[in-house]
């Protein structure tokens, strides 16, 4: 999970979502109260299930470790083949706009000729 969260694309997308969430909560009092209630509910459920799930996690730990190692190798391979994962969302959007604008300009020039 940490390896995925540390991918530049994922990290920057999470930052954008977090900023939008905080901004929305700050600007709308009714939404803030709903979000606060939801956050409290999630926290309570997480705390309640943590103790129940712990024995199962202890039993599954060796399997989870093996799966984690396998997933880590897969993510390394994916990162090599998709350099896009190492770019922030803002750069991807900017690059995409640039490519689309260039293609549209080329299409306009072709139509004019």
Written description of the protein model:
The protein has 113 residues and is mainly alpha-helical. Helix content is 89%, strand content 0%. It contains 4 helices and no strands. It has helices at residues 2-5, 8-27, 29-81, 89-112. Helix 2 packs antiparallel against helix 3. It starts with a helix and ends with a helix. The mean pLDDT is 91.
List the main descriptive attributes of the protein structure presented here.
113 residues, mainly alpha, flat
List the helices and strands and how they pair.
Elements (H helix, E strand, L loop, with lengths): L1 H4 L2 H20 L1 H53 L7 H24 L1
Helix pairs in contact: 2-3
Please report the distance between the alpha carbons of the first and last residues. 53 Å
List how many beta strands DSSP finds.
0
Q: In this structure, how is the largest beta sheet organized? A: none
| Rg, nearest Å | 22 Å
- What is the approximate shape? flat
Q: Give start-end ranges of low-pLDDT stretches.
A: none
Count every helix, treating DSSP H or I runs of 4 or more residues as helices.
4
Summarize the structure.
The protein is mainly α and 113 residues long. Helices cover 89% and strands 0% of the residues.
């Amino acid at each position: 999970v940490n390896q995925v969260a540390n991918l530049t694309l994922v990290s920057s997308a999470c930052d954008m979502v977090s900023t939008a969430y905080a901004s929305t909560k700050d600007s709308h009092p009714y939404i803030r109260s709903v979000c606060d209630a939801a956050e409290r509910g999630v926290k309570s459920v997480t705390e309640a299930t943590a103790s129940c799930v712990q024995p199962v996690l202890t039993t599954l730990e060796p399997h989870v470790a093996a799966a984690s190692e396998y997933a880590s190798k897969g993510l390394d391979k994916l990162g090599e083949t998709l350099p896009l994962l190492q770019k922030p969302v803002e750069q991807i959007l900017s690059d995409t706009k640039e490519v689309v604008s260039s293609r549209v300009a080329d299409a306009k020039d072709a139509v004019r000729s």
